[in-house]
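My current task is to audit a protein record that another person submitted. Thanks in advance; the entry in question is below:
***
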Amino acid sequence: MQIGFYFDQTRCIGCDTCVIACKDYNNIPTGINWNRVATIESVDGYPPFVAFLVMQCYHCVKPACLTACPVDAIVKRQEDGIVIVDQEKCIGYDNCGSCLEACPYNVPVFRGKDAKMEKCDFCIDRLIANKKSMCVDACPTRALDVGDIEELRTKYGDINKASGFVYSVGTQPCIIFKPKNSLDKLK
């Protein structure tokens, strides 16, 4: 089984509730984010276009961070495909930072130059307790979901492209989208 995310870009209003819920649940300090919401804007055409993109670890099928780590501090769990970090093994940004350089989505986070890598872990303790990740539960527009990637594909389809997102064939991020495009406003 591989756990993945679903993101409905047409429902997201850019409120950052998912970001705040993640920070609160994981006790993440100001200035550090495991989850981010990017604003995608275009005024080149008519009508003007604005969309949002939730950005967190996509727990790739072939994580570049894992293969880049020289001390095997990053592991992809066999039972669910969740990519986790062993902070005891991580030698930190000052001594390495290879995971950040390798990740096409700029996901690894360091709380300073001498810090160890950290990132989204799907709120693994909640998943084990048969609950959704905190960002999913907190979203007021229900733009997020998490679960077995095959079940998500059955429920939502198999679109891996969205405004502001470039799918990496090399890493195969585990995310499915309902993308928003500029023509959606005209429908």
User: Anything to note?
Assistant: Residues 3-186 form a domain with the Alpha-Beta Plaits fold (CATH 3.30.70.20). The mean pLDDT is 92. The first strand starts at residue 3 and ends at 8. DSSP finds seven helices and seven strands in the chain.
